[in-house]
Amino acid sequence: MASAPPGPQRPRPPFIPNPNTNTNPNPNPSSLPDSFQNLQIGRPPPPSAVPRGVAPPLPFSSAAPRPAAFPAGPGPAPSVAAAPPMGPPGLIRAPLPSAAPPQSHVVRPFPGSPPAGAPSSQPFAAPPPTAPQTFSVLPPQSSGPFTGNPALAGPPNSQPYMAPPSSQPFFGTPSSQPFRGPPSSQPFSRLPSSQPFMGPQPPFSGPPASTAPFGAPAWQPQPRPGAFPGSVPPPVRMPGIPLNAQNQMMPPPPPAMGYSPHAGTQMSTPLKIDPNQIPRPMPTSSVVVFETRQGNQANAANVPPPATSDFVVKDTGNCSPRLMRCTMNHIPCTGDLLSTSSMPLALMVQPFALPHPSEEPIQLVDFGETGPIRCSRCKAYINPFMRFIDQGRRFVCNLCGFSNETSRDYMCNLGPDGRRRDADDRPELCRGTVEFVATKEFMVREPMPAVYFFLIDVSMNAIQTGATAAACTAISQAISDLPEGPQTMVGIATFDSTIHFYNLKRASQQPLMLIVPDVQDVYTPLQTDLIVPLTECRQNLEQLLESIPNMFESNKVAESAFGAAIKAGFLAMKSTGGKLMVFQSGVSMEVPFFCEAHKLLQPADKTFKTMAIEFAECQVCVDIFLTTQTFVDIASISVVPSTTGGQVYYYYPFSALSDPAKLYNDLRWNISRPQGFEAVMRVRCSQGLQVQEYSGNFCKRVPTDIDLPGIDSDKTIMVTFKHDDKFQEGSECAFQCALLYTTVYGQRRIRVINLSLPCTNMLSNLFRSADLDTQFTSFLKQAANSIPITPLSQVREQITNLCINILHSYRKFCASVSSSGQLILPEALKLLPLYTLALIKSIGLRNDGRLDDRSYWVSHVASLSILLAVPLVYPRMISLHDFTSKEDDDISLLSATLPLSSEHLNDDGIYLLENGEDGLIYVGNMVSPDTLQHLFGVSSLDGVPNQLVLQQFDNDLSQKVNEVVNEIRRQRCSYLRLRLCRKGDPSGMFFLSYMVEDKTPGGLSYVEFLVHVHRQIQTKIA
Amino acid sequence: MKEFLDLEAQDGVRMTWNVFPGAKQDAVSCVIPVASIYTPLKPIPNVPVLPYSPLRCRMCRAILNPFSIVDYIAKIWICPFCFQRNHFPQNYSSISEDNLPAELFPQYSTIEYESNPETGPTVPPVFLFVVDTCMIEEEIGFLKSALAQAVELLPEKSLVGLITFGTYVQVHELGFALLPKSYVFKGTKEATKEQILEQMCFFTRKPRPAVGVIAGTRDGLSAESIARFLLPASECEFVIEELQKDPWPVPADQRASRCTGAALSVAASLLGVCVPGSGARIMAFVGGPSTEGPGAIVSKTLSEPIRSHKDLDKGSVPLYSKAVKFYEGLSKQLVHQGHVLDLFACALDQVGVAEMKVAVERTGGIVVLAESFGHSVFKDSLRRIFQSSEHDLGLSFNGVFEVNCSKDVKVQGIIGPCASLEKKGPLSSETVIGQGNTSAWKMCGLDRKTSLCLVFDIARKDGPDAIGQPTSNQFYFQFLTYYQHHEGQMRLRATTLSRRWVAGPGSVQELVAGFDQEAAAAAMARVVSFKMETEADFDPVRWLDRSLIRLCSKFGDYQKESPSSFSLSPRLSIFPQFMFNLRRSQFVQVFNNSPDETAYFRMMLDRENVNNAVVMIQPSLISYSFHSGPEPVLLDVTAIAADKILLLDSYFTIVVFHGMSIAQWRNAGYQSQPEHEAFAQLLQAPRDDADAIIKERFPVPRLVICDQHGSQARFLLAKLNPSVTYNSDNPPPHGGDVIFTDDVSFQVFMDHLQRLAVQQAYS
């Protein structure tokens, strides 16, 4: 890993799990840089180990060891050719999370074999037999397919299925034995139902093509054993439950299965469903390169890889899917078609999403005083889809269709292909995403400086629980991560039942403490000097932070005036705007208590909302760090951050032992992640659609725009659309998101993100190009939005119905040929039932559980990116106890996920489950003391607090676990709150509540749920 | 005169009439009210301090005094006020004609009691500085050094607090060692005691009692929570150093935003919370007009001028009455708590003394008005307050003043620094002047010079029984003053007086014999000032003139309608001159001054003794020359001569005026030549005399040294009788001067007086 390529230019400091506070710092220094990259990439899912360590750079870095990989690229070409049968299918492969794995395994087999390029698809493709679609179903015969491949032939033939077992086996087995290991093919054989598919889908052969594009397979050819970082010894499961285990692990993902129009996952008679064969997410292990646009035409098949997979984007006209992606990659021509599909039409916009380190940075375009070229009618910004006509003298707006005159300065002749000759030289004409330098006309005032104001609770509780000290330490350490320069201003205040400001601008003198006692009617005690350039007060500030915990050591004030404090903080920064970070522990004096459970999720009154709107108007963005041990009414409090573009951090129950590290890391990431201030965002779309609603953390004062006092790389805004007209088949529908913001260094910019998608009249196209992760995220947000206003049972029902309706639509219009006894899932959405089930059982929708937890979940989800939305609901679980027996590096360890079912928990095992927020370490009751000793430094867990500080000990297991945890932290850009869960203890029960596939007193098991869904569909059809 | 001064020396009392008109009707016809000016804490040598509690009449609560009739056999004393017979208690059993307790000694008509000297409350006095910070740096510097000096001079045990204000009010927590720390209150709001209690965390350690009066350690406040704000003087010098200019910016066309009212309100409430009922002073240092919140006197716009007397007359000052109302409320609170408000107003502009007057005066506060904190008037006055010396002020706290008198006398009220306690009784007259409707008054702050003017009402109806009973033609008065001595203990001073009354025809001569013209002038000055402030459309000049004419008409010797036959007894002879000067004084001719100055002058008048009041009304003028020693001269323009030096003492200002020749010699430097030592001495003499006056006077007067025809000479000229004016027929003698005025001279005034006094109509 150390060899990580230098390549990526990273704009901002990456997120690093703090070396300082982290009790178990990453021991390997060299890993740090690496981690940086990762972080920057912000790349989602686990799989990537490979890329990171070795491959990622490949694409671009010449240094990359195996250029070969890329060469793979060429592969695709062939494959494409091959694929043919199913025109589109080829491209499809990407969408499925599971898709990746298959590739990998497939590929391997063909070491050297050129076709490798088309890996994933191939396996199935070739073997036309199996029903790629029915992934679960895969019958044994399927093996056939592989046989086809010469390369595979060897081992595979016999055990065709091994391949499918996908990733795991692969990794496990070093290249040498490639496919052997997996001999497990048997598992498949078991596969019951699948038959139906088998026969029918010859077409699938096609898919291979698609894979090609992603160079991923590339390296496979090279059998470097060691190289495969990710390779985890397959044996993992083996011991106990050899075959079965494997099966479970790798549901026969037909991933790459082409999408035949009818493609779908079928479940035969529900009752006979084999739990091991039902769809589950499959981690991908390879990086693919995604070109956002191929050729000058919208290519219907150019579906972006799943959001949660690892990919590198080449911006060739459309924006990176990280920045903006749509729930479907075809736009239905009519509103009727859309409603028939029952799918949502929405964009997830994450304007500052972290790029992959290998991606080119977004280019900055300066048009000088005239400002960016815009359509004079709809004010859309110039983009690659605007069509120049009349020798370039005019251009037609792709959003409103208006024909504009090209200004003289911007004239350029058209080439033979109808494009401007300079199109490739001008980023705004060839890139999906560009930034423009904003001119005066975009400013109502000078761009604001970067202002950070910290508000710290010092009431009795906060002091006694150590929350104040933790906050002070965190701030003190994080100061060095604030943007450098004279533009950076800071201020600080503390509060209990009164508010204490500090005058930091007192050269060579101690800060002056100014108390505002009247919390009914707050004010700032000074007009200036409360917020001071960092360069002028660093020393004072540090001293102050050090002494605050002592100063209030014996504070006996139990109340904390949260509302007044944020108001006061706001007043202090009103003239500039900026970030207000509140560290709150106590019970807010202002929050009245209600008893009606349902009402509690709504803000207790309008005060906070009114206040928040006022904040937003003055460009103040509020982040709240709740370091509490009591109920704090997050429902009320969270209105403020969610209206001002901030967020809530929740540390409950706060532990002075384990939480400070997370607090520091959260704060550090908060201020160091890519972000902008005083932003205004608007999404425009082609005539035919109109924006229906924005959803996320912002303030909306006019119908068309949303105001974002703060916007950062973690925030996602959902934009829903509705039809107000029809599109022509074959036309394109364009979306343009324009974000006007101020950088942390005080420059005003406009980030313009463009996406142009083909329109279709075919329902099957919609299903084929459906984007599961995005759709699911949209459901998730929809659910979160209705939780405060709708009874939980109703929300769960709504969500279930959404799922049923979509599947029903598919069943009815796209898969009508199949027997009605089968449950057929569209390939792209085959995980929808699982995710839906998980969502129903999630913290936000559970009936039990604390109100604050639910409110926090709601507020967290509101701005959540796709990347994190999926794991939040369907966490990742891996086993830790057997780490030492695997030889892969941590990244591939990470991809060895387990289904969330208690069947997979052994009493002698230790498991890590993480959802991007929390990390739960489950320890069975039969774990050997040795393992405990290695991992926790104790031979018995009695007396070890649940709030865990993971230490690093000098042994393999401990080191690996630490590495893995750090890797997760990097991936999630979040420092997990680790909790220890013991079997037979309430904490163990808590852990088990995450086993969404299990049957619970109030919920169905996964299989039961499928049955339920199936019945509902049948009822509907009948 | 001498006898009046002797009486004053013995008891601190001057009375306008030392022989009383014996009936209501007589009293009315005497024109000058029956009044006494009493200095409760006048230092009187040899006043015994008795280490026990006084013996009281069980009927009227009067204290045993030399006028009581004692039956040594029966061990009974008869109260001279109510004639109640009281038995002596056990501890007086050894009383006999030869063994009298001190309080019965005739010469001890004034005596002090100090009850349980060992256990008496020893709460140290509290000084809460309330400091304006809206000033230029220079002024702040002056103020800082003055305060630092003051803190050093404070008795070590006394407690000090600090509040600064500007746009906001900052209460500094002095007992917080880690950082400088202060509570910041909005300048636009008053702060109640409740808010202070709640917002400044006085009850964090204990649950706050749900009901009841909450204040002080007695009611459950912890000493530490109080000690946060009030620290022994010895521990808090550092604080003053921290003073800084108010940081809020002031636009060029605006006044600084200064919330004097809110600051005082916070200060009052803080003291009310911390030390209710024990001696404490709020010392406010104000450098400009209040423009913010309660008590604002003017808007922030500079183009709007600060109110003048003209504006007040026209009633076109909306802020004025609001502010006065606010300060009335504040004064009630302070009086209730027993705390004093002192005001040090140092600015070229007005700061609102006129509005604050009510609060300062009713709490017995000190007021000093100067142009700058760097001016000696301020600096030296402040030092004087704390310095212990022979002239020190002897600041005392928490006084209660009570009166007993014979049943035919009632009290209309007191004009002076005190507040009525609304203790209405048979003693209080229906007619009210000043603080009335009571027989007890609160004096939150008092010092050795504080003088009250009590105005009496003779309630005795003329009746047949009233005549010819010589034994009963005495009125008795007893003035009781409880106070917290500046050393901490509680004391009671009792002064018992007796005055004879006369009635009927032929009493005029006796009345005249008892007439104290100086006391009368002082009393008239207080009354006329009071009436000017409280009575709408009051014409002071006319009222004074009529009073004087009626007085002269009643007591003068003349033949009717013959002005030339008019003459006055020596007892009355200089009274017309006092009235002439009073008419021209700053108390009546207010239009030459700002409302602030007028308020200041009046407050001083109302707290000073007769002597000083007379100086204010009619300045003294001393002439120095080679021809004779220093001699008092008439306050007349003719006193000016080229070869003379004049020393004018008008109380607030002392002017050393060099005649033209003297000035030339001085400029030539003769005084430094050995052969002209006499000249040097001549120059020095008035300076020395001026210094002597300055040394004992509080507030320290302003010293003006000027030359004839110099611009500063106006300080002298304004006070002189304009007997020679620019349109006089008789030119001034050589080296003399003329005054450019249309005012009538004393001579003209007297002519008119004589003419009117002898007219039938006034008799």
Automatic annotation (TrEMBL), chain A:
Biased composition (Low complexity): 60-84
Pro residues biased stretches: 1-17, 43-59, 220-232
InterPro entries: ADF-H/Gelsolin-like_dom_sf, Beta-sandwich_Sec23_24, Gelsolin-like_dom, Gelsolin-like_dom_sf, Sec23/24_helical_dom, Sec23/24_helical_dom_sf, Sec23/24_trunk_dom, SEC23_SEC24_subfamily
GO cellular component terms listed in the entry, alphabetical order: COPII vesicle coat; endoplasmic reticulum exit site
Keyword Protein transport recorded: yes
Domain Zinc finger Sec23/Sec24-type: 372-410
Pfam families reported for this sequence: Gelsolin, Sec23_BS, Sec23_helical, Sec23_trunk, zf-Sec23_Sec24
Annotated ranges, domain Sec23/Sec24 helical: 771-866
Domain Sec23/Sec24 trunk stretches: 447-671
Composition bias type Polar residues, residue spans: 31-40, 168-178, 186-196
GO MF, one example: SNARE binding
Residue ranges constituting the Sec23/Sec24 beta-sandwich domain according to the UniProt record: 676-760
Ranges for region Disordered: 1-232
BP GO annotations: COPII-coated vesicle cargo loading; intracellular protein transport
Name the record gives this protein: Protein transport protein Sec24-like CEF
Organism of origin: Ananas comosus (Pineapple)
Gene name in the database record: LOC109725247
From TrEMBL, chain B:
Gene Ontology CC terms: COPII vesicle coat; endoplasmic reticulum exit site; endoplasmic reticulum membrane
Coiled-coil positions: none
Biological process (GO), any one: COPII-coated vesicle cargo loading
Domain Sec23/Sec24 helical, first and last residues per copy: 516-614
Transmembrane portions of the chain: none
Entry keyword Metal-binding: yes
Domain Gelsolin-like span(s) in chain numbering: 629-716
Residue span(s) of domain Zinc finger Sec23/Sec24-type: 54-92
Keyword terms of this UniProt record: Cytoplasm, Cytoplasmic vesicle, Endoplasmic reticulum, ER-Golgi transport, Membrane, Metal-binding, Protein transport, Transport, Zinc
GO MF annotation, one: zinc ion binding
Topology relative to the membrane: Peripheral membrane protein
Compartments in which it is found: Cytoplasmic vesicle, COPII-coated vesicle membrane; Endoplasmic reticulum membrane
Domain Sec23/Sec24 trunk: 123-386
Domain named Sec23/Sec24 beta-sandwich: residues: 397-502
Function of the protein: Component of the coat protein complex II (COPII) which promotes the formation of transport vesicles from the endoplasmic reticulum (ER). The coat has two main functions, the physical deformation of the endoplasmic reticulum membrane into vesicles and the selection of cargo molecules.
Family to which this protein belongs: Belongs to the SEC23/SEC24 family. SEC23 subfamily.
PANTHER family linked to this entry: PROTEIN TRANSPORT PROTEIN SEC23, PROTEIN TRANSPORT PROTEIN SEC23 C
Name of the molecule in the record: Protein transport protein SEC23
Organism: Ananas comosus (Pineapple)
